[in-house]
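Next comes this protein:
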Amino acid sequence: MNDDRSGLARRGFLIASGATALALTAACGTGATTPDAKDSKDTANGSNTTPKPGGRLRAAFAGGGANETLDPHAANLFVDAARAKALFDKLADFGADLAAVPRLAAKWEPNDALDTWRITLRKAAFHDGRPVTAEDVLHSYRRIADPQGTFRAKASLEPIDLDASRAVDASTVEFRLKRPYAEFPNVLAAFGAYIVPKGATAFDRPVGSGPFRFVSFTPGSSLVVKRNDTYWDGAPHLDELEFVVASEESARVNALLGGQVEYAHELSPATARTHEGKGRIEVVRLPGSAMQGFVMKTDRPPFDDPRVRRAFFLIADRRELVDGALSGAGDIGNDLFGKGYQYYAADLPQRAQDLEKARALLKEAGAEGLRVTLDTAPAATGFVEAAGIFKEQAAKAGVTVEIKVGNKDTYWKDILNNGTFASYRSGAMPIESHISQRLLTGSTTNATHWRRKDFDDLYQQAQSTRDATRRSALYERMQRRLHDEGGFLIWGFADWIIATAPGVRGVSNQAPANTLDWARFDKTWLA
């Protein structure tokens, strides 16, 4: 499956992959632990209500039909991720700023060369009472990395030499890496990298270490789980949680309005506007959940000339694009991925539309009267709308944009190596992962064809740099280069929208989709 899966989001598919970033000074040898959210405030509704125990919450998600599985390593859909989070744990997950936070790992410590990492496990138990041990961790990772398997986290585990890695003792794992990797906790937090008991291969009645215990499962219909009273991070407030499959947005919203569910995942901006503020449901917007933009192929005309790329940066009216294509449900971009995330170069000046300067750059490049084809498809919310808006903006700079609407089912494969200019979207992931997956010479999803050896060298230098401040400075240098001459025209960041019944509390409105506090039903309660 292509790493840029955001085009699948409208069908319920996860739009963010993988890993998280880490400031080594925050966790190396400090025994850093996950913040205790057991008594968290109701960040969605602004209430300071004390959590109330008991009750059953029903959550509606788009599903995957009769072939659904509870194997956490086989997860691909949003509903898969939410169900896996309820039943299992990872060694780490990522916070709202896409920095790693420990989960089953109590701390992590690298050697001086950053090619060996020791992970100390916290005291935790599986639902059958067995303790979570280093052997369980190694079994889980080796199962994921099996050459015969197709688990999604397999690529994320590639830096680990699992043959050389070992259990030092029951609570300590030593991972040997194939090369220095300062951001190794990205791997621990990789999507799908859940820890299962040693020897586990069947998941019809899964035994995990998560906040809820398995009760029943009907693929394509329902999963029922109950509170794990001995959960290491504090027992959930709810007695029971049911995941209900409703693949159409209208079905999820109608179920919420009719009282059949208390939580509905994935609403469109238009639906949210229709119901927001009317008292029947609470709309929760998760900021920074999806990057929206265009990609320019930097290895072919006309975008092999950096002056043309800079001109296109200046053609974009970002606010008009956010308001028109996303119905205002988002924030403007600045041609850099990861606004608000760890390492984001927030000090760079915000670009604004400058048609006069854009015309001058095109003239200087010998590209007056330029005609380009913009590939797009209804593969993600706002794609076709944004293409139409940008076409009108470009015309004001003397550029003719011809829109080519392709097949939404093959779109991501089609644009990876074909064409010159295309609509693009990505879910939340650490900036380091964005660079490694999309902007290095050997990156397999390099849609802009940005290939610069000196840029690759900066990335490798960052991964060999232990000091967090120096490493951050290297990421800033890379981002300044991309901001000046890269191939990503990033005009906005879309909110992810969910809705709840008025009595639901403890739902975070600060966590982008697919981060630790997204779908955090162990911290949710019914008022």
